[in-house]
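Worked example 4.2. Below are the chains of a multi-component assembly; read each line carefully before continuing.
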Amino acid sequence: MAKLKIEDLDRIAEEARSKMTIREGAGKARITVHMGTCGIAAGARAIMSAFLDEIKAHNIKDVIITTSGCAGLCSREPMATVEFGNQAPVKYVDLTDEKARKIFKEHVLGGKFVMEYALSVGSERIR
Amino acid sequence: MKRYRLQLMVCAGTGCVSNHSVEIKDALDREIEKHKLQNEAEVVFTGCNGFCGAGPIVVVQPDGVFYQLLKTADIPHLVEEHLLKGRPVKKLMYSPPAEKIPIPKMSDIPFFSDQTLIALRNRGMIDPEQIDDYIARGGYKGLVKALTMMTPDEVLKEIKSSGLRGRGGGGFPTGVKWESCKHAHGDIKHVICNADEGDPGAFMDRSIIEGDPHAVIEGMIIGAYAIEKVHQGYIYVRMEYPLAIKRFQIAIKQAREYGLLGENILDAGFTFDIDIRRGAGAFVCGESTALMASVEGKPGEPRAKYIHTVERGLWERPTCLNNVETWANVPQIILKGAQWFSSIGTGDVSADPWGGSKGTKVFSLAGKVNNTGLVEVPMGIPLRDIVFKIGGGIRDGKKFKAVQTGGPSGGFIPESLLDLPVDYEELTKVGSMMGSGGMVVTDEDNCMVDMARYFLAFTQAESCGKCTPCREGTKQMLDILDRISVGEGTEEDLVTLEDLSNVIVESSLCALGGSAPNPVLTTLKYFREEYEAHVKDKKCPSHTCRKLNTYSIDEKICLKLGHGCHVCVKHCPDAAIIGERKQVHYIDPAKCSKCGVCYDVCNFKAVQVA
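Applying the procedure described above to all two chains together yields the following structure tokens:
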């Protein structure tokens, strides 16, 4: 390790930011891949891998990927929910590797809903 | 660089390590590899989370799922369910006492949600052995600000107006101390970090060092810069803290490699380095003059402080000593400003640095509460909130009796004063003190005479013996308390105890003697009836002082439940229990030495205490 200059501190912080985003649980966008038994059987793992692959390829540091159980619509799996900033969460259904990558580029990075794959905008009311 | 989706934060504080958290990490790594998740999930060691009673602890981020009391056997299931299938495992989560529904998220658990973190802000977030993790959380930014945008005087002014006061016990305004050291004559000055934490049951400093050593180092560099003419600092830490020493050594090495310690720090023209000095664990070495004597290689004994250490301390040079937690607060104050810090807490420090208690304080909560561990709370929080909200109330539904604050020489505070705001002056007013932040909760089963005796026995044993009031006085007091607890006390003893206490407080050389009688004085004040029961009725109301108890065997329970199991006879050292197997047993009061062993060993609770 060489002696640091002041601007190096920012560089180090930037490099470690993807880890810190996860630890702090606060990113620009959050992708939830539904991984109940139905989701896994329908290929949720491939969807997860596609998202992770995109994150790596684009060197993205402020997107969180997480998993959840069955969302109750097993026939439309694999599913994923994308929350971008303060916008309403969007549920995407019948996903494939290509669809996931398109959603990533347009919604997760750009904040624009991909309406053709979306099932609904907003979530159920929880009482 | 790898891109993970999960970070598993495994607590590697001393508490969790002794509960096998290292094995937990190994098991996690193993299972993660088995499921081929090694590119998605990273397992990281962090410092102490504070909830030591629930250890070993693993927090799964980004969702903040909190797993507690883990065993290696739980790990395969946890990894398969949560990491692979995305189903957090409920049975490994925390449920509040008296409730069945577990709370998945760390941020929703009252123990954590009611805390405010400044000194412990990086706990559970960083790997303490990675300087880059600290930097990623804004570390060394306070130092950059100080070195590049502020003069030493401005840094000092900032600390002074923040209202930060010493977190080690005295509560002396940090800025005022720095200023005195700055104005003292001398071409070579020193700063010291006091990490000689010796209070029984207190471990906040150890936890800060183990979890975030760079915060302390950064604070010390800033302090050295502000005081000026300081190029060498020392950390005095006890040998009993091997993990803390190791983390400091690693942190200092990394800081040197990055040029954050050493010559011309960050090319800003300031030179400063830190070395570690290890103590042998004498309690008195937490006292500033004794500590400095010990660093110099002399016996750890205090001296009279006609001349303060800020003028003549280590090797007769002006020396500024602050405790671990105080130093750890400094970078945040510089980074976020004095106003931010002084907006937290009580009183007003704008004109008088003694005018209030600002910021937060870390307490180690121990004793009879449900949630034991380390908590950081804003100054001014009612004691009741710490004990009942964060601490989760008293264990087993028992009744609260008193809470002792400030370590072994702190006083006991009764139920009637529980709404007291935690602040330096308020605690002193009721006869206790902030101290370094020990907090021991007692319930109805604790005898206050016995508690006072226990803590006095500690300070008595740790008295260095240099001054007579502390050496002889505490010994006499302890003898009296010993007598009272075996039923040989008189009413006059209570008067003598008070007299002796006052003399010791007035005339001791250092704060060890000056505060040692506090537990006795406060229990005499708030729980006098318990002392009177001991000396007048020769009874211990909570049956803790066994020599004052009378033991007998309930015939019905002994025969019907225990079927005359005979266990008590085997254990009785006095052959005082009469009875054949499968028949009723009796205790012969003439032979009984009241050791209480029969009470301890009876599985059927047939032995009665009166």
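Take a moment to check your reading of the output against the notes. Chain A has one domain: 19-121. The interface with chain B takes residues 1-6, 9, 12-13, 15-25, 27, 30, 33-37, 40, 48, 52, 55-56, 60, 64-69 of chain A (CB under 8 Å).
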